[in-house]
Design brief:
189 residues, alpha+beta, Jelly Rolls, four-stranded antiparallel β-sheet, 3 helices, elongated
Length: 189
């Protein structure tokens, strides 16, 4: 008898809670973290450099299953992945900007000042205090978020540009610079 009462109680409990579970699943958002990687190969005999990478933000959003409700930026990380025939003591200054492809208005996302290659071999957040000389530009970050939240999201050019202060006698400075855009995407399941 005790077994039968327990079984009936469990069945009733399931019948009562299943509709609530369906509503719970239907009304909740799924939050996904995405990373967009930008690889810059910089090679210059001059003091100045400028390299551009293009990202179709709508393609990034379309690769996600479900309806995207909102995109939230949460970090940009950067690092020098390789140097070629250049001194690790060589430093550079500059900025990372974003702009919609085909337009002239750009948003500066971050600036960097007198950072040595050797100090940038480890991936670092632009919000970190570990590398002196990095400065976040909040209005630029807001502009980037605005790009993600357009319908459809545009193709965006990300440009890293600046100047090089050679530490050695190298004729040409060559290095690979990596930027990663970390976002959270809220989507219906």
């Amino acid at each position: 008898m005790k077994r039968r009462t327990s079984l009936v109680s469990m069945i009733l409990l399931l019948i009562i809670t299943l509709p609530g579970c369906d509503d719970l699943l239907r009304d909740n958002l799924v939050i996904l973290d995405t990373v967009t990687r930008l690889d810059y190969k910089i090679s210059t005999r001059d003091m100045n450099f400028s390299e551009n990478e293009r990202v179709n933000l709508q393609s990034v959003i379309d690769d996600i299953d479900g309806d995207v409700n909102e995109v939230k930026f949460f970090n940009i990380t950067m690092f020098v992945s390789d140097i070629y025939n250049s001194s690790p003591e060589t430093s550079f200054s500059g900025q990372l900007t974003s702009r919609i492809s085909g337009t002239s208005q750009s948003h500066t996302l971050v600036t960097f000042s007198n950072i040595k290659f050797e100090d940038f071999f480890q991936e670092v957040s632009i919000f970190s205090d570990d590398v002196p000389g990095l400065s976040v530009v909040p209005n630029g970050i807001d502009g980037l978020l605005g790009y993600f939240n357009r319908t459809p999201a545009p193709v965006v050019n990300f440009t890293v540009s600046g100047t090089i202060n050679r530490a050695g006698g190298e004729d040409r400075v060559e290095f690979d610079f990596v930027v990663r855009l970390h976002t959270q995407v809220e989507t219906d399941p």
